[in-house]
Fold TIGR02453 family protein.
Amino acid sequence: MAFTGFPDEAFDFFEELAEDNSTAFWHRHRDRYERAVREPMARLVAELSPEFGALRMLRPQRDTRASNDKSPYKTYQGALVDLEPGLGYWLHLDARGLRATGRYYSRAPQETAALRAVVAEERGAELQSLVDGLAGLGHAVGGVALRTRPRGVPAGHPRVGLLRHRTLDIGRDCDRVAAGRPSAAAWVAGTWRELRPVLDWLSANACVRARELRASGG
């Protein structure tokens, strides 16, 4: 069955789950989750996978073992494509709408060190240029970042903003009205096509450096 958009009920479900994130609520409304969230996301995933690679949908339960927040369920539905460890495309559906991004998201020390090393080098100017171009198309740069520059990075470094990042999450959002239309599939595909040069650069530079660091024990 073709993707026809996410119904209003999907966004209402997440709003209500945020108010009552309990096992009792989940069991009362699980059929709503399956019908309004999981099934449309599965259809969207099926449309995108032939071009971008096999997407996997995340389970709704949270892993609370290492978190102070013991809420049992995620207030979003995620799906991702792992192009290689720590790098890929991401979909995020929540009460506000739909977000499509490209992510460099592994938090292992080698991955963070590799990202900062290649951004600091002269070739990092290529990544900055790609990111600036995406900003002009409406993409925002997110991810885990320091509030200040990393130790040893001069204040005047031309890429000090990127060097603050431990992870990168670059993309854009559409609201629940746009996410409710069949055209949301084309919107995600177009967003990911625009992000592909950044992911290719990260694959050829940051991911390669991370493998070198792991191999050397760094």
Notes: The radius of gyration is 19 Å.
